[in-house]
Design goal:
Elements lengths: L25 E9 L2 E8 L3 H22 L7 H5 L4 E3 L2 H16 L9 H13 L5 H13 L3 E3 L4 E3 L9 H19 L5 E6 L2 E6 L7 E5 L15 E4 L2 E7 L5 E3 L2 E3 L14 E8 L2 H13 L2 H9 L5 E6 L4 E3 L13 H5 L6 E9 L11 E8 L4 E8 L10 H8 L8 E3 L6 E7 L12 E10 L5 E10 L4 E5 L8 E7 L2
Parallel strand pairs: 8-19
Antiparallel strand pairs: 1-2, 2-6, 3-5, 4-5, 6-7, 7-10, 8-9, 10-13, 11-12, 13-14, 14-15, 16-20, 16-24, 17-18, 17-21, 21-22, 23-24
Amino acid sequence: MRKTLSGMALTSVLLAMLPGVATADMFKRHHDHVLGTSLDIVVNAPSEIDANKAEEAILKEIERLRGVFSTYDNSSEISRLNRSIDTTVSDDMVRVLERCEAYRMQTSNALSCRIGSLIDTWAVAERENKLPNRPAMRITAGEIRRASVEIDAGKGTVNRPDEVIFATDSLAKGYILDTAVEAAIAASPKVSGLLMNIGGDIRTWGAGPQDGQWAVAITRGSELGEGGSALEGRVQINEGAVATSGSGPRDRLVGGQPYSHVISPADGWPVFHALTATVYASDAITADALATALLVMDLKRGLNLVESLPGVEAEIVTEDERHHQTSGWGGLKPEGKATSEIEASWPTGYEFSIEFEIPDQDIADYERPYVAVWIADKDRNLVRILMLAGQQARWMEENYYWHRRFGRKAGSLVDAISGPTRRPGQYKLVWDGRTDDGHTVGPGEYILHLEAAREHGEHQHESVTFTLSADAFNHEIEPGNELGHVSVRFGSTD
């Protein structure tokens, strides 16, 4: 999987603290066009001066390392390395390549930084709308696997055979996160907590706003969080890293058919058996690397590998929508109500679901819409945020019903979002009958709100008043300007 430094589009982030949490010493920063994606920073510091020092150090370190690892910059160190056979390289390059080779052995070639030529072949295939020759790809993959790469850390040299074109993007962003955090701590020693989010890969250090921890929402197919406030989709971590890899807009379209951008180093062909893989680890380079490897590895082998690594946990979502977790994954979950308590709020076997479409519009300057979905009680008090999705938090103000009523004070219930980027298509949200703080709601009247706004586009707001009781119901909303057909259903899943 090539997570490109200049084309990374996993996810953006809405950064906000839980209602009632003091924010005087929490400083938030957002930057666009950083490594081809967005950068969000949260700094816990005694003053804005200290926060600014940390921010400046982070930006400086990211730019320095972009010049090392960017495959889109012909003058970068990795581009120069790929044009030569025997090259003296930086300590940064040595560290990353050594980790690449170590993970290649550990994952039985599921993760490889050698496959730049295979990736480039698929780029040509998409451009020419013609599939690569599969037997030829398999032969090339075998030659790459058997090639001898020599890395001499003492001399700072790398011997690269012709068969190998390095593509370090599966690890480089994680490495950049780790080193940027170190740079921030060194530059601003009074900082007591720090979170960095680059395109959905997250690194934390020190004290967070959630009782000293950091809340991270893990989503599939979203930017800011279908399930962003869902207890099932959240983890709370201390110092560490979370990375999610999966299918998204970087998948290739060849001959009218989509092909995953996740390429198996074994045969050079896309893999499809997993939708997403999320990894928690103490450092971002480990989380980044394993999130990629788990998409390629056999499910059982992948989970067994993670189980063997101290302090590492993972969740894999397979094509059948089943969630497969390592034994310690549940320990990362925030406390919530037991299932039996949830089921007691409505008939056993019932489900409240919202299915909707984000239309694929053939517009030259099309921007994905900003979507808010929430449930309020009959007095219009906020009960549950089901989704906040958008490229940048500040644009959520365009959803003026949400923003006026709740957005300015409620925000999101997570500090960062890890997940692949939303694209047009069909989506389903499920409400479990709980409030944002995990309490079970009782019978009564509620209001479901759906709101969407788009840059260079229009605004749409829909609401459905419903009563929670033993009676099932269905409600349909006709397609509008920014949302396609919406179906709201409460009833048995049988």
